[in-house]
Structures are given as structure tokens and as C-alpha cells.
């Protein structure tokens, strides 16, 4: 595995790879790797000739009072995991490398951002699409891999790639979970022992809520999830059912939906979701 840290280095290496006619898979991360990230690498290794992973904790997507400074970092461990999983190029720039000065141009996401996480984190997805625009430009990937746990981010990134005509295919990879159903996340390390015990209720509530939706509709399903989550000590940030990937309030004719929730514990905010399709007699989840 080759580790690169400058724009000049990554551009030259990508140029050489492209000259050889090899396909590039891209896995953007903020580090502190877990099995969810590594599942993205696995898909990239299977589908592409060369896999590039970026590790960059992007300050533009953290708002005031959010956890940029204490976001978990362990570069030595990340390097070992990335290499073992099959990453060919690890791009690990510092902030000044990607943002050498206050940017004169940024990217703004105008759709799919005013609900779910975006409703309480104004500007967050502007930071996401700005850094991804830079990385897509530098790495020029044939395919880019994102985890479905961050379903709103996937929807926003699909909009970015489509609107700005980035020549990369956005691949969504199913959520990787612990044995008890908790979605793997870099922030899980901040849960107390009691909170870790409670956290799997989030996914269980979403599963039950999706079934309630088919029988009783949107309002009843949201209320059911709310009742289920009352058993945890964390504060509910949101519970919502929307069309996917458009993230609009569904009508009776909409059949592909997302049921998503966010819960704030003392030191960690956890998100999870189920994307499901409705049929006449059942709910078919996609993960």
C-alpha cells in the first residue's frame, strides 16, 4: 500500500494509473476505521483494479459545538486495517493541503438537505459536497463507495454526482451491524456501558415501524418508533419516513421509502435507517 499526503502526489499517481487503463474505486472516510468502512473496501477491491481510500476529517462538515476536535483518530491502526483489507493507495492529506486558504469557491447542496440530519446541522452537507468535489476531481474514480447507514449522505452525493456530471458511479453498500443489530459507527466508542446496552433498540424500533407503516400508515409508524425509543436514555433528535432518495413526504403512490432516526446520548449521536419498499401484503427491506 502506498501512502500519499499531498495533492501533487495523488494527482501524479492517479495519472499513472489512468495511463495504464486501470479502473479506480474510491472509498472516502474520516478514519477510525471499522467493519463498515472495510466492507466498502471489499466491494471496491472486487469491482475495480485499484482501490483508493482517503482519510480526512473534514472541518467544513462540523458545525459550532460539534465534535471535530474530539472526533476519534488512530492513524497507525487505520493504516494497518487499510493495508490488510486491500487498499492500494491511502490518501491522508492535512487540512492545509486541501484548504490552503479560505476557499474562494464552495459547493452548496440545495436538495435533500433540509430534513433528517440536515435539519439540525445547517451547512453540514455543504461541507460534505465541497470536500467530495475536491476528492472526486483529484482521484477521478470510476466507482465511489458509500455506506447506507448514512443514507441521507448517499442521497446527497448521488445528487452531487448527477448535477455536476462527475464521471463516477455512486455505489451504496448495506449497513454493517454488530450481532445485536447496532449499526457500526466510529462514534460507538463514546457510548457508556448502559447506553451501549440500550442502543440496539434503535434498529429494533425501525424494523417494527416499517411493518406498522404498511398496516396503519406514516403517522402511526412514526409514533410507534417514538414509543419504542422511549425505553432508551438518549434524546430523540428525529424520526421520519420519507421517499428515497428524493427525501420528500410520501404519497400513497410512493413505494420506496426510508424510515430513519437519530438519538443523542450523552457523548454520541447515533443515526440509523431502514430503506424499504411497500407491497400489497408485506414490507421488503433493502438491508
CATH architecture of the largest domain: 3-Layer(aba) Sandwich
CATH topology of the largest domain: Rossmann fold
Helix and strand composition category: alpha/beta
Q: Which strands sit side by side, in order, in the main sheet?
A: 1-4-3-2-5-6
SS field, number of helical segments: 10
GO molecular function, one term: pantoate-beta-alanine ligase activity
Protein name: Pantothenate synthetase
InterPro entries: Cyt_trans-like, Pantoate_ligase, Pantoate_ligase_C, Rossmann-like_a/b/a_fold
Main location: cytoplasm
Architecture overview:
This protein has 287 residues and is α/β, with parallel strands linked by helices. The protein has two domains: 2-173, 3-Layer(aba) Sandwich (Rossmann fold); 186-275, Pantoate-beta-alanine ligase, C-terminal domain (Pantoate--beta-alanine Ligase, Chain: A,domain 2). The chain has helices at 7-19, 35-47, 75-85, 95-98, 116-120, 124-139, 151-163, 193-198, 201-216, 218-229; strands spanning 2-4, 24-29, 50-55, 89-91, 143-147, 169-173, 235-243, 256-264, 269-278, 283-285. The protein has ten helices and ten strands. The strands form two sheets. A six-stranded parallel sheet has the order 1-4-3-2-5-6, sandwiched between helices. It has a four-stranded antiparallel sheet with strand order 7-8-9-10. The longest helix is centred in the middle third of the chain and has 16 residues, at 124-139. 38% of the residues lie in helices and 21% in strands.
Amino acid at each position: 500500500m502506498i501512502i500519499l499526503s499531498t495533492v501533487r502526489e495523488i494527482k501524479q499517481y492517479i495519472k499513472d494509473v489512468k495511463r495504464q487503463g486501470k479502473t479506480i474505486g474510491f472509498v472516502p472516510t474520516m478514519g477510525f476505521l471499522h467493519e463498515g468502512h472495510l466492507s466498502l473496501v471489499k466491494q471496491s477491491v472486487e469491482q475495480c483494479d485499484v482501490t483508493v481510500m482517503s482519510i480526512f476529517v473534514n472541518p467544513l462538515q462540523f458545525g459550532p459545538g460539534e465534535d471535530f476536535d474530539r472526533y476519534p483518530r488512530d492513524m497507525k491502526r487505520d493504516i494497518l486495517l487499510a493495508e490488510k483489507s486491500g487498499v492500494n493507495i491511502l490518501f491522508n492529506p492535512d487540512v492545509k493541503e486541501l484548504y490552503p486558504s479560505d476557499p474562494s469557491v464552495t459547493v452548496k447542496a440545495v436538495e435533500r438537505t433540509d430534513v433528517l440530519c440536515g435539519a439540525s446541522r445547517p451547512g453540514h452537507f455543504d461541507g460534505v459536497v465541497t470536500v467530495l468535489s475536491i476528492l472526486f476531481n483529484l482521484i477521478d474514480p470510476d466507482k465511489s463507495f458509500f455506506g447506507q447507514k448514512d443514507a441521507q449522505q448517499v442521497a446527497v452525493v448521488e445528487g452531487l454526482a448527477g448535477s455536476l456530471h462527475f464521471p463516477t458511479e455512486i455505489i451504496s453498500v448495506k449497513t454493517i451491524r454488530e450481532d445485536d443489530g447496532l449499526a457500526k459507527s466510529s462514534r460507538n466508542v463514546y457510548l457508556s456501558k448502559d447506553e451501549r446496552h440500550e442502543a440496539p433498540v434503535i434498529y429494533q424500533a425501525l424494523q417494527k415501524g416499517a411493518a406498522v407503516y404498511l398496516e396503519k400508515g406514516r403517522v402511526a409508524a412514526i409514533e410507534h418508533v417514538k414509543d419504542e425509543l422511549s425505553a432508551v436514555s438518549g434524546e430523540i433528535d428525529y424520526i421520519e419516513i420519507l421517499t428515497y432518495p428524493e427525501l420528500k413526504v410520501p404519497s400513497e403512490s410512493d413505494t420506496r421509502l426510508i424510515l430513519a432516526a437519530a438519538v443523542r446520548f450523552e457523548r454520541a449521536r447515533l443515526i440509523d435507517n431502514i430503506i424499504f419498499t411497500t407491497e400489497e401484503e408485506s414490507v421488503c427491506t433493502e438491508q
